Amino acid sequence: MSELTKRYAEGLYSLVQDEADFLSYKEEASMLINIFSENEDYVYTLNSAFLSKEEKVKLINETLKGFHPYMISFISVISDNHRINEVIDILYDFISLINEKIGVKEGLIYSSEPLSEEEIRQVEDSISKRERRKVELKNLIDTTLIGGVKVLIGDKVYDGTIKNKLENLKTTLLRGGN
């Protein structure tokens, strides 16, 4: 978390009142991340100096109709403060604050190729059983991996990569095969 994105995320987080709201806001934040990730032109438009503040607010209200009013207002504030380029990071930080509050651990899953949502969910379920609490993983690509996955959660590493298995085999062979 950068200090800037953290402050904005904490501002939005301060509006959330109870656990039911946490889950609803988390879902909306995830949807907004997808919207902003998949529509760079939308971000570019909201960042434009050629649109007035009122035009940007109108555009946000029209395109995000159906979202919680706080979320819509929050996006308007971010846009008005010329921070729309940071919106995805702010929303990720917001989700992290919610996850911390509701006891969800976050981690990274490294793979040589993008994993499907089902594959990520299977790994999350497996790691959640080991950690004895819900785990959510974000998939990152590491082209140095030959195959398999490596999961980082806090200071724990679960390494099921072929690269790791080959390194372990090499170490064992160099020690005399024991």
Describe this structure in words.
It is elongated, with a radius of gyration of 20 Å. It has a four-stranded mixed beta sheet with strand order 2-1-3-4. The model has no long low-confidence stretch (mean pLDDT 90). It contains eight helices and four strands; from the N terminus they run ααααααβαβββα. The protein has 178 residues and is an alpha+beta fold. The protein has helices at residues 3-13, 19-38, 40-46, 53-63, 69-80, 87-102, 117-131, 162-174; strands spanning 105-111, 135-141, 149-153, 156-159.
Element order, helices and strands?
A: HHHHHHEHEEEH
* Fraction in beta strands: 5-15%
Proportion of residues in helical segments:
55-70%
Mean pLDDT value: 90
Could you say which structural class the secondary elements and strand pairing correspond to? alpha+beta
Instruction: Give the N-terminus to C-terminus distance in angstroms.
Output: 44 Å
Low-confidence stretches: none
Tally of helical runs? 8
Please give the number of β-strands.
4
Alpha carbon gyration radius: 20 Å
By oligomeric state, this entry counts as single chain
Give a quick account of the main beta sheet: strands, pairing sense, barrel closure.
4 strands, mixed
How would you describe the shape? elongated
Q: Going across the major beta sheet, what is the strand order?
A: 2-1-3-4
